[in-house]
Request: fold
Amino acid sequence: MAKEEDRTDIADFLSGDRTALDRLVVRHKDRVFNLCYRLLGDYSEAEECAQETFIKVLRSLKAFRFESSFSTWLYTIAVNICRNRRNSAEHRFWKRVLSFGRNSPEEEGPEDFEIEDPAPSPLVRMTEKEKEIMLQSAIDSLSHDHRTVIILRHVEELSYEEISRITGYNLGTLKSKLARARVLLQKKIQGSEDR
Amino acid sequence: MKCSQIKAILFEYTDTEIPVEYREDVEAHLAVCESCARQLAALREQSYALRALPRIEAPGDFLEKVRSRVERPSVLLRLKNRLPVLFAGKHFFQLAGAAATAVLVIATAQVVLRDSDHKALLSPAPSQVESPPSVQAPASVGSPPPVGSSPSVQAPASVGSPAAEPAMPKSLPDIGGENGKTHNRAATAATAAKPRHLSGVEAQAVSITLKLPGVSPKLKSRGGGFKQENFSASSPAAGMRAPDARRLEQDVSKGVAGSAEVSEGSPPPEAQKISSDVIGLIKRANGKVLSVGPAGDENRPETLSAEMPAANYHSFLDQLRQLGEIEFNGNKEFSPAPDSKVRVSVGFATQE
Reply:
């Protein structure tokens, strides 16, 4: 249904209907904004990147060939913009300033998929707000690739196929990265509980 | 199935559907393995917590911000739009033309200045340009007169005179070097030689031998011979004059000719006196001593070459006859034009 609406609005926008642009933005802005926020962990940066995503999409809308859904294309651009933003010197500087005193972000250890101490999850005993803060902090400590796959899969609840199109990973690589990301995320959660 | 196998597929078990045969094995294992069951519970809790994260909504003015940014032209587009305005400006082409002209003028000036510097380095100095004719000048002074002259009275080609110095190539850009000095000296000699031609009338030459009485034999052992140096008496360059000749000239001007002291290497007093007398006569005739050449006999004075106004030539001859018998070599008597000059070469011979 949404795909059909996207197709219609894109056609209207290309034929000069300026209101079609508004409809496209309104329909997708929250999901794009949420994705940016989860990937970046910062509200203002998320707003900046979400705006940039729409501007980039709308300026290259004539080149869109509907080989994938509009939302997948939108997500692909948003993920790339957020990655570039995280890699920018400005973002690294503020991240370093704000994370002063914290543990260094993750990660890469031995490639195992076993949770070493499968104790009852601390998430069970937390309030919703505490869970959100802790989870977002744990997500932020992951690498961009792991963070992206875990958010796209478990926050945005996209299918493996959609995630494959967005990230460019094949299915096997995607499953492997996702499993690894979940192990690392669980370690972060357990670690934050221990502290 | 072992725990390790179960844990490897637990992620897929919680996330997606797995084949039925595996599902039954996994569920059978989880029923008996507490560790794997706890891990499954943790993964499920994690998935639930991630899904339960609140959806952050975009700010209310998000659409307006996007719209304003979309409608605002990009930097390149803005630049592209401004270019026609810039080119359409009233004075744009005038300013551009002025700037281009200024650049052209500066570049041309630099090229011209550079070329002129190169030319100045490669071309000889102005004094050097005049030097070639001056190189010939001393030779012409001592050159044999057009009338036939005897070898004994002819001033030989000056040894050590400026003319004898090797002529430098015209194109040599030697400035201030040793060669430059040579050129300057030659130029000076040329300047000094110029008065001989100032009258614009070709000087007539005559060669005379003054026969002197015999020189005392005892004097031969006293004095040395004349220095075998030639010089141009008219040259103002002190370094080019033979000291003895200069002293003689000074003595004549002071009226103390013949008072030169006898010293080792100087001519005998008689010879010095005769030479001084002749130079004095030349001076009195308003003439100039051009050169003093070596004598064949060391006891005889040097050969003198002088130039004097033709009007005084005959009086000079009369006074010269008082010193001794004179003999003309080649053309004997001639009457030069009154406004011309006469170049006289006076040789000395012992009267038997």
